[in-house]
Amino acid sequence: MNGLLTDLYELTMAAGYFEAGKASEKATFELSVRRLPVCRNFVIAAGLPEVVDYLLNLSFTPEEVDYLRGLPQFRNASAKFFDYLRNFRFTGDLFSVPEGTPLFAGEPVLTVRAPLIEAQIPETYLLSAITFPSLVATKAARCVEVSGGREIVEFGTRRAHTPEAGVLGARASYIGGCSGTSNTLAGFRYGIPVMGTAAHSWVMSFPSESEAFRQLQRLLGEHTIQLIDTYDTLEGARQAAKLGKPIWGVRLDSGDLSSLSREVRAVLDEAGLADAKIMASGDLDEYRIRELVRGGAAIDAFGVGTQLATSGDAPAMGAIYKMVELDIGGIHRFTSKLSDAKVTFPGAKQVFRDVARDVIARSGECGNGEALLRPVILGGRLIEPLPSLEQARCRAARAIANLSPALRELEVTEPWPVIYSRELRALIDQTRRNLAP
Amino acid sequence: MNGLLTDLYELTMAAGYFEAGKASEKATFELSVRRLPVCRNFVIAAGLPEVVDYLLNLSFTPEEVDYLRGLPQFRNASAKFFDYLRNFRFTGDLFSVPEGTPLFAGEPVLTVRAPLIEAQIPETYLLSAITFPSLVATKAARCVEVSGGREIVEFGTRRAHTPEAGVLGARASYIGGCSGTSNTLAGFRYGIPVMGTAAHSWVMSFPSESEAFRQLQRLLGEHTIQLIDTYDTLEGARQAAKLGKPIWGVRLDSGDLSSLSREVRAVLDEAGLADAKIMASGDLDEYRIRELVRGGAAIDAFGVGTQLATSGDAPAMGAIYKMVELDIGGIHRFTSKLSDAKVTFPGAKQVFRDVARDVIARSGECGNGEALLRPVILGGRLIEPLPSLEQARCRAARAIANLSPALRELEVTEPWPVIYSRELRALIDQTRRNLAP
């Protein structure tokens, strides 16, 4: 499954490794955060279940192998290589930080240790499977951080880069602290609370707004949220208020949310609906939410769509997947890329996090604090069930609460200290000397 | 299939329409480009096959219906509604502009005409299925436009928002004019030319760069592209040149691409490899490509990843899906949203494009030029196979070539004239009067 869902060069390299007799060499690849996304002080790791599912099921159908066989790039590959692909399975190891872990620039998210070809092919899929949910979880955490305890609901599937990305984005948003999502499949699949009542088309489909509101209330009872901005927002608020209870509240989706929310609040209060809440949506992001909260908007919950589901201001992050170690019949070769700004560091690693800093060490070292990278798959088998979604969400919340106030701000600040252990620095120097021309 | 892959409010509205006796009303919804994405003069429509596939297969499994039944929002829905969902099929009509059509602000991409519930539920999925590929096709067209005839290859799956988005992004890039993709599954599934040779890990896995280059050349022959920047780019170029032919060329992935490309060109030329090409990659977008081309970089092909696969500078677009008409037992009601900036216009529409302008008219009107919206699904059935991917790509290329030079620039310019027909304007006025409080 998914064997071809990778860049072609992973597969031409696979053929090349095979033909060069390197199929038995054991490689360690590291997926790491080279740079934080713009305007971010940390990134919340997410996406591990997709990585695990991919590695455990990675294979090629006969039709896929035939397709490769017909490509000019594989003209010189041997029949044995195609047999190898037909029987391909991932037999290696995966180490990963748990979902919900905040990470900083330079830190590994996961490590794959496997026969060279098995470790090479997953590069493309793993990068995509980790970076997108991590970006969304991070964006969600930023919205939650500035909401002053108000609920943030993920509304963005319609803007996600494919509907399925909407489902995974909803899951990532929940890890980042959203209290629910509008994505129904995310509720069905992951048990995330789902929210939703009616759109403008609902209101427009009835002869009058008040009839639309009445019908919705009949259906939803105390879960009713009346969308009041189809024609005139304050008139809509009055129509909703006239119907009285049961009602959860109303939603504003356009206009000056700050002043409208206060006017609507007054309408509701006057009608004896002090318990009725006001939800706001429409082009929101963490900056806008902060502004509304600081400005004293009478908003009890925010629905965030486009900016959250696409991580709009930072739709990509500079994560990399690099070979760091190669075991050729028991002889270890440490590998790194030394040209220009794209330097990578050699050797399998561990990250130790204590109260004052993170130490990136060699994988065998002892260290202080929490060791972030943990075994997930060994010898091609999942060693135990992954932490639940709720656990990932709690882990993120706890870890973010432990960050300094400055790191939790929206603006970029002095980075959290991340240093290399003495042993790792020695290995870097040694690798550099060995590679010097 | 995919019944739950939608916002919950589509389904609560479905229940509400059903309970209010509106299931037999026939609605027309329009998916349109409210605003162009930032920095764009047009957007290339793409994603139609996903829309068709979704509508033809839309259904709910028994487990999905049970899930909805257990949600508090459906407590007051009747058993008949859940029976309705169990037997749900899309029986309506879809009209769409062909893939590869440039569209401008305010123009419809597609129209759904179906019983109200069947037209409402697809909103979320259709918006996502259309906007993402349209954004990527548009970004690709911009890169191709400034490349001066050099090949643009899509390299971005690893940055796409899910691996599957990478596949659909590769397809959209091809519509936009890319000559190929690194995504192997896109090649297998859609017949797009696939490209790829080796990564830095290939070079690092061998004891020396020259050995790595020799092995790659043995495998790929005249398709060989040596990645020369793992250690030292110019030394890499000399190593590649020393091996002579067969070779397609070399790839630069870091450093000052402009000056390095000229130095590498000199190395290749001196070695008698004047035919060998230079490909560049690494954080490229249409602005960088234009700068390199204008600056006389010796680059023959560009690999574009992150920015293309995420439409980095415009990762979302303001498309909307709005009810424009409702047929209640033969009586037509025209619907529009009138509050604030989010105005929508009533009535099913057609767009006529001639050499001087686009005219948005009512669907039954005659007009001059090409009628862009065409029937695709009628009565729940696909009326004929969709145009091929190659046809969509040609359509885009021809249509872009017909745009004025200013509209083809990267910078935003005077918009293409889009006007409303007299009949449509009359309908707008009439609807506004009817809705006035």
Task: Walk me through the structure.
- Two copies of one chain form a homodimer.
- Chain A is α/β, with parallel strands linked by helices.
- Chain A folds into two domains: 8-135 and 314-435, nicotinate phosphoribosyltransferase (Alpha-Beta Barrel); 138-309, TIM Barrel, CATH 3.20.20.
- Helix content of chain A is 39%, strand content 19%.
- The first copy, chain A, has 17 helices and 19 strands.
- In chain A, the strands form four sheets. Chain A has a seven-stranded antiparallel sheet.
- In chain A, helix 6 packs across helix 7 and helix 6 runs parallel beside helix 13.
- The radius of gyration of chain A is 26 Å and the shape is elongated.
- The mean pLDDT of chain A is 96.
- Chains A and B meet through helix 1, helix 3, helix 6, helix 7 and helix 8 of A and helix 1, helix 3, helix 6, helix 7 and helix 8 of B.
Secondary-structure map:
Two copies of one chain form a homodimer.
Chain A: H1 8-19, E1 26-33, E2 43-44, H2 48-57, H3 62-69, H4 79-86, E3 93-96, E4 102-103, E5 108-115, H5 116-120, H6 123-145, E6 151-154, H7 163-175, E7 180-181, H8 184-190, H9 200-204, H10 209-220, E8 225-227, H11 233-242, E9 249-252, H12 257-270, E10 277-281, H13 286-294, E11 301-304, H14 306-309, E12 319-328, E13 331-334, E14 349-353, E15 358-362, E16 370-371, E17 374-378, E18 381-382, H15 389-402, H16 405-408, E19 418-420, H17 422-435
Parallel strand pairs in A: 6-7, 6-11, 8-9, 9-10, 10-11, 15-19
Antiparallel strand pairs in A: 1-5, 1-12, 2-4, 3-5, 3-17, 12-13, 14-15, 14-16, 17-18
